[in-house]
Write a sequence for this structure.
C-alpha cells in the first residue's frame, strides 16, 4: 500500500495515533533494507525476476560492465502477445523511479478490446541503440513468424520510429492522435491571437485529421490554410511537423486502410501500478 493510505488506516483505527508520513517512509526504508540483506539493488531485482519466473534480459555496458537496460515480461503476457499480436501500442513513461530511467511500455489489445501489458523496458537513455536492443528482445518473444504485429501506434519519437521500421518492417506505423492534437492545440494557444480564433483554427484542423477520402484531403488542407493564414508561424509548424512528413500516419484517409481496431492513440489506460511497485521494491527509496 502507499504510505499515505497506511497512514489514513492507522488514523482511522486510532484517532490518537501521532504517526507521521516521514516515520512511515523511514520504517519502509528499514524494512526493505532488511529484506534485501547484503544483496545490491540490482541483485535484488534479478532475484525477484527469477523467483517469480519472469522472462527477462539485461544489457551490460561494454566498458564499465554496468547494467544499462532491463527487459522483462510475464509468462502470461507472452501467451497473450502471441494470441493477439495485430496491434501494439508503445509509449515511454518518465519519473517512475529514483534513477529517472525512462520506462518503455509495450501494450497489446485483445479481440474484445481489452488491454494487456506485453513487456516493459527500463532504459539508460532513449537513444537508437537502446530502442534497437529493446525491440529485438520483443521480436524474439513471438513464437511464429506469421504473428508479428501489423500495426504499431506510438508518439513522435524519431529514434523509436526509425527503429520500428527496421525491427518490424512488416508493421504499419501510426502516430498517436492524442499527442498530435495536444501539441497542435498548445501551439495554437501560443501563436494564434485573438482567443476567439482558436475554435475556428482547431475545427479546421479536426477536418484534416478526420478526413476519410484521399481525394478530399487537399481541400481540407486548403480550408485549414485559409483559417490559419493570419498566423504564418503556426501554419508552418503544422505543415512541416505533421501534415507533410506524417499525414499517412494519423489522417483517417490512410489509417483506415489498415486494421487498427480503433486504436489511434497510444495512451490507452493500463493498470501497471502493481508492476511498477514490483520493480520499485527492489530499489530503496
Amino acid at each position: 500500500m502507499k504510505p499515505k493510505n497506511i497512514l489514513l488506516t492507522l488514523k482511522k483505527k486510532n484517532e490518537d495515533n501521532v504517526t507521521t508520513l516521514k516515520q512511515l517512509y523511514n520504517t519502509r526504508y528499514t524494512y526493505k533494507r532488511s529484506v534485501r540483506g547484503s544483496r545490491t539493488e540490482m541483485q535484488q531485482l534479478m532475484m525477484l525476476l527469477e523467483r517469480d519466473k519472469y522472462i527477462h534480459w539485461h544489457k551490460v555496458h561494454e566498458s564499465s560492465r554496468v547494467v544499462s537496460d532491463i527487459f522483462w515480461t510475464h509468462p502470461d503476457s507472452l501467451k497473450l502477445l502471441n494470441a493477439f499480436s495485430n496491434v501494439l501500442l508503445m509509449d515511454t513513461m518518465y519519473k517512475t523511479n529514483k534513477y529517472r530511467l525512462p520506462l518503455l511500455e509495450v501494450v497489446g489489445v485483445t479481440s474484445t478490446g481489452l488491454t494487456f501489458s506485453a513487456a516493459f523496458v527500463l532504459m539508460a537513455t532513449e537513444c537508437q541503440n537502446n530502442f534497437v536492443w529493446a525491440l529485438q528482445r520483443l521480436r524474439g518473444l513471438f513464437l511464429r513468424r506469421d504473428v508479428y504485429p501489423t500495426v504499431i501506434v506510438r508518439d513522435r519519437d524519431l529514434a523509436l520510429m526509425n527503429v520500428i521500421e527496421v525491427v518490424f518492417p512488416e508493421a504499419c506505423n501510426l502516430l498517436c492522435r492524442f499527442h498530435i492534437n495536444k501539441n497542435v492545440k498548445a501551439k495554437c494557444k501560443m501563436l494564434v491571437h485573438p482567443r476567439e480564433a482558436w475554435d475556428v483554427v482547431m475545427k479546421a484542423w479536426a477536418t484534416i485529421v478526420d478526413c476519410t477520402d484521399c481525394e478530399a484531403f487537399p481541400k481540407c488542407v486548403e480550408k485549414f490554410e485559409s483559417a490559419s493564414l493570419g498566423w504564418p508561424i503556426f501554419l508552418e509548424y503544422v505543415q512541416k511537423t505533421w501534415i507533410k512528413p506524417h499525414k499517412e500516419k494519423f489522417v483517417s484517409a490512410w489509417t483506415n486502410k489498415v486494421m487498427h481496431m480503433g486504436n489511434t492513440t497510444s495512451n490507452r489506460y493500463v493498470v501497471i501500478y502493481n508492476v511498477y511497485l514490483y520493480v520499485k521494491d527492489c530499489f530503496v527509496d
